[in-house]
Amino acid sequence: MKLTIIKSTTKAHNIIFLADKISDLKEQLSKENFQYFRKCWKDEDMQYIKNIQGYVFVVKTAQKDLDTIRKTAFSIHDIVKNHYKEVCVSSQNLQKTLTFLEGFLLSDYQFLKYFKDADKRKHTLNQIKLHGAISQKELNELQNLIDAVYWARDLVNEPVSFMDAIQLAKEIKAKGKASNYKVEVLGKRKIESLKMGGLLAVNKGSEIPPTFSIIEYKPKNAKNKQPVVLVGKGVVYDTGGLSLKPTAHSMDLMKSDMGGAATMAATIDALAKNKIPVYVIGLIPATDNRPGKTAYAPGDVITMFDGTTIEVLNTDAEGRMILADALTYANKYEPELVIDAATLTGAAVRALGTKTSISMGNAKDVYFRKLYKSGQKTNDKVFRFPFWDEWKSELKSDIADMKNLGGPNAGMITAGKFLEHFVKYPYIHIDIAGPAFLETADSYHGKGGTGAGVRLLYQFLKEL
Prior knowledge:
By secondary structure, the chain is an alpha/beta fold. The chain has helices at residues 31-41, 66-80, 94-107, 118-121, 136-157, 165-179, 188-194, 197-203, 259-273, 319-330, 346-352, 365-378, 411-420, 454-463; strands at 2-6, 15-19, 48-50, 56-60, 86-91, 127-132, 182-186, 211-217, 228-232, 234-238, 280-289, 301-303, 309-311, 337-342, 357-361, 382-384, 402-403, 427-431, 437-438, 448-449. The strands form four sheets. Strands 7, 8, 9, 10, 11, 14, 15, 16 and 18 form a nine-stranded mixed beta sheet that branches. Helix 5 packs antiparallel against helix 9 and helix 9 crosses helix 14.
């Protein structure tokens, strides 16, 4: 989508006006249109008004929360996406302009790579002209953030026939080169030399070797001396391993099990493109989880990167196994804060559905308050769950240091407590299993991969 700032509007433009009150538009509308819009304005249930000819929309922004504006943008996009080649957005309020544009652009995402008639399916709308309260710098920042969300969605939507662990690492490395930050990819031999037992165990059933991608974005003007480490679960496909997923359709969506990896890689890419002054390290352990001939089995005892021994009770609890090694690796950086994102548990989905991610951890309350506020501002929401040590008892094993599965209840919390064992610094765990991949379209979040967590963490780190 091409975005252009213009100095004035003309009758030739298909215009979307954002206005707090109808009188703001008296000088910009024809007399006939103004009378029509003023009459319609009185209907309080209307979020936007379309004129009779269909060339002009007025969005009522007074006293509207930001997400209502995003959803209104989705509704208008749905009308114009295949009727016009370009539209113009005119507004004198910067925040509302950016919010509307964010919802509009997020609504425009399409994943058409595998359609033979992709050209016919592509939206005809390809340009937005912007008039009023916005600068090129602000527009560029938003565009870079939207591009990052698109990339995260693409990574998740790709099938494992293309997006295996090796390809995921290649994609991340290519982005690093394009956006000027460092990416180092460790192959299987290096992972073996480091004795990352969790990642190697999960990979045993696969014919594709694992990768471990290390991303470093360290601008010269970074305001934090110690990095924030972002760890993303990169299970590119999950069958459950020998603990094969038993229920109908339970494997259909498992290409999305690397949603955490996509979130963290895309967040760093947005930070780098927008030159946000924060020092960030990204760690992406990646593999698929299959019931191959040498697959790890329930009852196995695995020695992890930090030497902890884990009794495996369920090979479908694989995400925590690969994350544990990455979280141990994070300790070498002596970080200010460690955050992981993962499509980790079905319990998270059952608890909060698909609208909200779950957070927990031992970091100071101020971090959680900022994270929550960032979620409210972006509507990439996150809700904090308790993280008391009582749940540790459910991870005790009779034959090893720990087991990889808790009891039948509060599975999202016992998974978090398992991961906490491997982190020696302030820690936040985010379970994005609910909102990361949607089977039914939800407004501007779309259907399929959503990029959940990218806008949340970008906002959080920008303001941290």
